[in-house]
Amino acid sequence: MNATADQAMRLSGTCLCGAVTLKVALEQQSVGACHCQMCRTWGGGPLLALESVSQLTLEGEEAVTFYSSSDWAERAFCRHCGTHLFYRLKNGEHTSVPVGLIDSGEAWRFDLQIFIDEKPHWYHFGNDTRNLTGQELFEEFSKDT
């Protein structure tokens, strides 16, 4: 599903304790997996996230804590229950939201894996996806600027 801003899919979800509500607008029903070491450390496995977030609104912002995980990105979580809320580039050009946070049975399409060069050898997803190394991903972002 490719959508204009008016046709964007709009969904919401809450953290485990209900202190934070996220409302997102999505351009596509695409899910990506990030295999980088930081995402695997953050969540105990690959981050399965919505990569086409065009708008994110937070309610309960006072319960949100930000962690600057690199020079270019930060991660947000609920300070009460620890739920992972989103990952975003500090320049504001990209936000990823964990799909499980807002999933209510939508017809998601798993079509992208990033940092495939950091994926451990002991697991493998069988889906036919676009696979990018970390270097290829950074090259794609640098083309857009």
Structure description:
By secondary structure, the chain is mainly beta. The protein is 14% helix and 40% strand. It is built from 3 helices and 11 strands. It has helices at 37-43, 99-102, 134-143; strands at residues 9-14, 21-26, 30-34, 47-50, 53-59, 64-68, 73-78, 84-89, 95-98, 109-114, 130-132. Strands 6-7-8-9-4-3-10-11 form an 8-stranded mixed β-sheet. A hairpin with a 6-residue loop joins β1 and β2. The longest helix is centred in the last third of the chain and has 10 residues, at 134-143.
Low-confidence stretches: none
Shape: globular
Task: Report mean pLDDT, rounded to a whole number.
Answer: 92
User: How large, in whole angstroms, is the Cα Rg?
Assistant: 15 Å
Question: Could you provide a short overview of the structure?
Answer:
The protein has 145 residues and is mainly beta.
What descriptive keywords fit this protein?
145 residues; 14% helix; three-stranded antiparallel β-sheet; mainly beta; 11 strands; 3 helices; eight-stranded mixed β-sheet
Write the layout of secondary structure elements.
Elements: E1 9-14, E2 21-26, E3 30-34, H1 37-43, E4 47-50, E5 53-59, E6 64-68, E7 73-78, E8 84-89, E9 95-98, H2 99-102, E10 109-114, E11 130-132, H3 134-143
Parallel strand pairs: 3-10, 10-11
Antiparallel strand pairs: 1-2, 2-5, 3-4, 4-9, 6-7, 7-8, 8-9
